[in-house]
Design a protein that fits this description.
14 helices; alpha/beta; 15 strands; about 40% helix
C-alpha cells in the first residue's frame, strides 16, 4: 500500500491538507476551475489558493489545463485533476459474474469488462480467487499494481462501509472483510452496497448533472436504492439506508428473500417479473416462450426481457405490472424527499418505454403534483457500466475522505 500511503501523506498536512482535499473534491464534483473561482468557492485568498495549487501540481494531483474562457477579456488558467496520479479499480459483484472498470485519477475509463463469469461465496478461498482475477486483469492491461490507488468492491445487501463488514458475505466477526481484501490485493479497499455505488457513479459522471438531491433506483433481480441528499451520499446511522426493496408495500402473502412478507421487491423487481411471467404460463397464457416452458425447461429473466423485442404480450404485461408498482412507490419517495431527479438503472431498464410509461403513469396518479412537478425521472446514462464505474468514483472520494 506504499503508493496509497504516499498519496495521502502528500495531501494530509494539517489545515492545508484539508483545503487541498476540498480543492480536489470540487474538481471531482464540479469539474475544472480557475484560481478566482476556487478562491470564491472556498472563501480563501487568491495567494493561498495559488500556493496550494502549485503544491498539488508538484505532487501530481492537479494539472494546469491552460488558458480557457470566452473570446473577450483576459483568459484565466484552468486547473483540473491530473489523470496520471494513479489508477482506480471498481468491481461490481453479481450473482454469477463480476464486472470490472479501471479508471485514471481524473475518472477517464481505461478499461471495462462486463460479466466475467464467477460465483462469489462467503469463504476466504472464494474471495482470494476473486482478488486473483482482479490482479490478473490489471496485469493483462500492462498496469503496475503499485500504480493502483484503491479498489472499490460492490456487494449486494447490507454493507457497513464504516466498519468494513458485509452481512451478505460474512467471513466472521473477528476481522472486517475490507481488511482481509486489503491483504489479498495489497492496497486500499473500500466495500459498499452496489445500489449506493451506482447512485454515486451516476451523480459524478452520469445524468446527475450537478443535481444535489437525487434518488437512484436499482431495478435488477432485486430492488435497491442509493440517495444523494444535499449533495452528499446518504448512508444512515449504520450504513444500511436505501433498502427500498424491503419496504412493507403489499398485503400479498409473498415471501421475500429477506424472510418477510409483502416487501416492495416482491412486486417490483426482476424476480417479480419472472414470477409473474411463469405463473401466467402455468395458467395457460400464450407466449413465444411457451414451447420451452412446456418442455419443462427453465425460463430465465434474460429470455423474458428478450421476448419484449418480439412484442410478446405476456412479457410486456409482466413489465407493465412491475412498472406500475414501482411508479407508485416512487411517487411516495417523491412526496417524502422532493428530489430534483430520480434515476432508474439496473438490468430491467433495457425494457425502456414498456417500463417507463407505466412508471410515469403511476407517479402522475399517486404523487402530489405540487411536489412532483419539480422532479425529473430518467433512465441511467451509465447503464451496465454504472456499478463498476461507480465503485471507482466512490473509492476515489473515500480515499480523499470526501464521503
Amino acid at each position: 500500500m506504499a503508493l496509497m500511503k504516499n498519496f495521502l501523506d502528500r495531501i494530509d498536512d494539517g489545515k492545508n491538507g484539508s483545503l487541498k482535499k476540498k480543492i480536489l473534491g470540487l474538481c471531482i464534483t464540479d469539474g475544472d476551475f480557475s484560481i478566482a473561482d476556487l478562491s470564491k468557492e472556498l472563501n480563501t485568498s487568491i495567494p493561498t489558493i495559488t500556493k496550494l495549487l502549485s503544491e498539488l501540481i508538484e505532487d501530481g494531483f492537479i494539472e494546469d489545463l491552460g488558458k480557457q474562457g470566452t473570446s473577450g477579456g483576459r483568459k484565466p488558467n484552468i486547473y483540473g485533476l491530473c489523470s496520471s496520479a494513479g489508477y482506480l479499480v471498481g468491481a461490481d459483484i453479481g450473482s454469477h459474474h463480476i464486472s470490472v472498470a479501471v479508471t485514471d485519477f481524473k475518472g477517464n475509463l481505461i478499461d471495462y469488462q462486463e460479466d466475467m463469469p464467477f460465483v462469489l461465496e462467503s469463504t476466504e478461498e472464494s474471495f482470494r480467487e476473486m482478488c486473483g482475477m482482479l490482479l490478473s486483469h490489471i496485469e493483462s492491461l500492462g498496469i503496475d499494481k503499485d500504480r493502483i490507488l484503491a479498489y472499490g468492491i460492490n456487494l449486494t445487501g447490507r454493507v457497513n462501509c464504516e466498519t468494513g463488514f458485509s452481512f451478505s458475505y460474512f467471513l466472521g466477526e473477528e476481522r472486517p472483510l475490507s481488511d482481509t481484501l486489503e491483504d489479498m490485493l495489497g492496497n486500499a479497499v473500500f466495500i459498499d452496497n452496489d445500489s449506493r455505488a451506482m447512485a454515486y457513479g451516476e451523480y459524478i459522471c452520469g445524468v446527475g448533472n450537478g443535481e444535489k438531491n437525487m434518488l437512484f433506483i436499482n431495478l435488477s433481480w432485486g430492488l435497491g436504492m442509493g440517495m444523494i441528499l444535499d449533495g452528499k451520499l446518504s448512508y444512515g446511522k449504520s450504513g444500511f439506508s436505501g433498502e427500498i426493496g424491503h419496504f412493507p408495500f403489499k398485503d400479498n402473502d409473498i415471501m421475500c428473500r429477506c424472510g418477510k412478507i409483502g416487501c416492495l421487491e416482491t412486486v417490483a423487481s426482476g424476480s417479480a417479473v419472472h414470477r409473474f411471467f411463469t405463473d401466467r404460463l402455468k395458467e395457460g397464457r400464450a407466449s413465444v416462450l411457451r414451447p420451452k416452458f412446456e418442455k419443462g425447461e427453465d425460463i430465465s429473466l434474460d429470455e423474458i426481457i428478450d421476448a419484449l423485442e418480439d412484442e410478446d404480450v405476456l412479457a410486456i404485461e409482466a413489465m407493465e405490472v412491475t412498472g406500475r408498482e414501482l411508479g407508485r412507490a416512487i411517487a411516495g419517495l417523491i412526496n417524502i424527499f422532493n428530489p430534483e431527479l430520480v434515476v432508474i438503472g439496473g438490468k430491467l431498464t433495457v425494457a425502456k418505454d414498456y417500463l417507463m410509461l407505466p412508471i410515469m403513469g403511476a407517479i402522475n396518479k399517486y404523487s402530489l403534483i405540487i411536489v412532483s412537478k419539480d422532479t425529473t425521472v430518467k433512465f441511467s446514462k451509465l447503464g451496465s457500466k454504472g456499478g463498476a464505474l461507480g465503485a471507482c468514483m466512490l473509492s476515489r472520494s473515500k480515499l480523499l475522505g470526501l464521503v
